[in-house]
Amino acid sequence: MDLLTTIEAIQNSLRAGRFPNEAAVSFGVVSRLLENLGWPVYDTDTVWREYPVEGRRVDFALCAPPRRPKIFLEVKRVGQSEGGDRQLFEYAFHQGIPFLILTDGPEWSFYLPSEQGTYQERRVYKLDLIERDSKECAEMLNRYLSYDRVRSEQGLEAAQHDHRDARRIRVMEATLSTAWVDLIASQDSLLLDLIAEKVEVLCGYKPDLELCSRFLSEKAVRLAEAPLSAPPRAKVPNDRKGTPQTLHTADPVSSVAQIGFDFNGKFHGARSARDVMQEVLTLFSQRDSTFLERFVSRKHGTKRRYVSQNRMDLYPGRSDLSEVHAVEFVPGWWLGTNYSKRNIGEIIELACEVAQVQFNKDLRVNLG
Fold this sequence. Notes:
Number of domains: 3
Oligomer: single chain
Mean pLDDT: 86
CATH topology of the largest domain: tt1808, chain A
C-alpha cells in the first residue's frame, strides 16, 4: 500500500473514531505512516520505541544513523495533545534533538526546538490529516519525515527553510480575516460562553446561548456580504474517491415537520433540540456498542468533551456547569447539554460521521 492510499485509509478510520487511545494511534497511525515513508519500523536501532530520557521515555526516537536519534516523536490520545509540546521540548533539551514531532493522530505539529520564541513560534508546521487533502498530507509528511530525507538532513533543512521563510508571515496576515469569519461562522461553544459571560459582566444580565448564536449568525451574514479583501479559501478536501466534498455547517432544520428526527424513515419526536441530540446519541449507542468509545475518540470542542465517562470532562474548570448541564444518558456515560441549536446540529453531524450514517439523508433532524 503506497503512502497516499495509507493516508486515505487512516483518514477514514480517524473520522470513524477507530483510534481510542495512544497505543492505537501509535500502531494504527504513526507506525503505518513511518513504514510508508521508508522507515524500517522493525529495526529497533532505527525506529526506537520508548526511548529513555532522564528517567522518562519518549514514544519514538527516529535514528539515522542507527542508535543516534535525529527526531523525537511523541504520541498522545486523539484530542489530548495540549501541553504535550512542553514535555517534548524537555526531552529535546536533555538530548540536543534538532527536530520534534507531536501528534494525536489527526494533528501533527513539527517543531524546531533550537529556534527562538514560544513553543508555538518554534512550530514549523501543523498538519491536520482529517481537514487536509490527502495529497497535501503526503507531500508535507514526505518533506519533513521521509527516511531518506531525514538521513540526508534534507528534512531538517526544509523545516529550517520553512521557518525562516517570510512568506509564512504574509500568508498568516492575509488569512487572519478569513480565520475571523470562520470563527464567527463556526460558533464554537466556548466562544458563545465567553460572549455570554462578557455581556453579564457589562450589563448584569447573562444572555442564553441561543441569543448569542443569533448574534454571531447575523455577524457572519454581514461579513459574507461585505467586499472580500481576504485571499481565496483553501482547497476543499477530496474524499477517498477524489470527489470534492461539500464543506458545510449543520443546518438544524431539515424537511422533518416537527421537533425530532427521522432515521431510516422512522420518525422520533422530541421536546427540544437537546432531547434530539440525546436521543440520537442513545440510538447510535444501542445500534453499535463501540459507538461511544469511537465518538469520544474524535476531537470535540476547543477544550471540552461532548460526551465522557467523567462528567467533569464536559466543562473543564467549570464544575458549576458540569453539575447543572450534564445528563447521564446511557449508564456510565455523560452528555453536556449547554449548547446552542447550531452547536447541537454540529454534534449530531459529527455523531453521524462516526456512526457512518449520512446526515440529512439517513438521518434528518428538526431542532425547532
